[in-house]
Write a structure and sequence with these properties.
Number of domains: 1
Structural class: mainly alpha
Helix content: over 70%
Largest sheet: none
Strand content: under 5%
Order of helices and strands: HHHHHHHHHHHH
Radius of gyration: 18 Å
Length: 295
């Protein structure tokens, strides 16, 4: 397992994912209708797939997905997914460039908190769990499916900003499951090539969870402000992935003090960026009214 290479590729994937989110959020803001949960998602997706800007974002996202696949092959799920919170930091950079507004000191402090939490997680000596238990993977996927259904049903009852965050949590759960299946699929492809991968049930599950995650992401981006959606998705994905690493791969949990310190830094950083005044400046005009209530 090449720890350094896995972390480096995961960071590169985060850059591409955050750029894709910024591009696709701009495209979804121009789409007719807004979607909380799965309400109106068919109309939303039909509009987006015809938008060249959204397609460009999808291509960028595919590049990030490929880098994440290689990172997961080289390293464990817990290592790769613990790097994912840095997406929000990169989103801040891209959004600030687009808005021509330099981040405030509070923004940089929040970003530093995220980086500090990630460094603690990826340098802690609690890794392992390279091979998955098939039965536990199925159990994990079933539980996540129930959680996603509950979140989507609840999203319809909330105003746009909370609906966006709730739908983004569901998307984060879906992408966490994708990371597990991607790890299994990448390992099989490396060992047996394309024919072996095509006979693997996890490959087809991967296609389903990835597609669901993409749709839910667009629904979240269209439902409310980008900071709320990205903060919710950013913290959900690695958190649920840690659960997957322990449940499905038999990885040991992080040492208690590392878990507490890293968790506190990540939460403080993500909440700080989500509540930043700069967020209003890099939210598309179509969402300005939805930003009421976000300081």
């Amino acid at each position: 397992m090449d720890h350094a290479a896995a972390v480096g590729l995961a960071l590169a994937a985060c850059v591409l994912f955050s750029l894709s989110a910024a591009v696709q959020q701009r495209a979804s803001a121009l789409a007719p209708g807004r979607s909380g949960g799965v309400s109106g998602v068919e109309r939303l997706m039909l509009a987006l797939v015809r938008n060249p800007l959204w397609v460009a974002g999808a291509v960028i996202n595919a590049g990030g997905f490929g880098m994440q696949a290689v990172a997961l092959h080289l390293g464990s799920v817990s290592v790769v997914q613990s790097v994912m919170p840095t997406q929000l930091l990169f989103v801040l950079v891209f959004a600030s460039l687009a808005a021509r507004h330099w981040p405030t000191p509070a923004d940089w402090l929040s970003g530093a908190a995220i980086c500090g939490g990630v460094v603690l997680l990826v340098t802690d000596e609690h890794r392992g769990g390279t091979y998955a238990d098939v039965g536990r993977v199925a159990l994990f996927a079933g539980c996540v499916a129930v959680v996603i259904c509950v979140l989507l049903l609840a999203a319809h009852r909330f105003p746009p900003p909370v609906a966006a965050a709730t739908t983004a949590v569901a998307a984060g759960c879906s992408f966490a499951t994708t990371s597990v299946l991607l790890k299994i699929t990448a390992d099989r492809a490396a060992a047996d090539g394309l024919p072996g991968m095509l006979t693997l049930p996890a490959f087809y599950g991967l296609l389903c969870t990835c597609s669901l995650g993409i749709v839910l992401t667009q629904a979240a981006l269209a439902a409310g402000p980008l900071p709320w959606a990205m903060a919710a998705m950013t913290i959900t994905n690695p958190t649920v992935s840690y659960v997957a690493a322990v449940v499905a791969f038999g990885a040991s949990a992080p040492t208690p003090w590392v878990a507490v310190c890293a968790g506190a830094l990540l939460v403080a950083g993500i909440v700080g960026l989500a509540r930043s005044r700069s967020a209003v400046r890099w939210t598309p005009a179509q969402h300005k009214r939805a930003e009421i209530g976000v300081s």
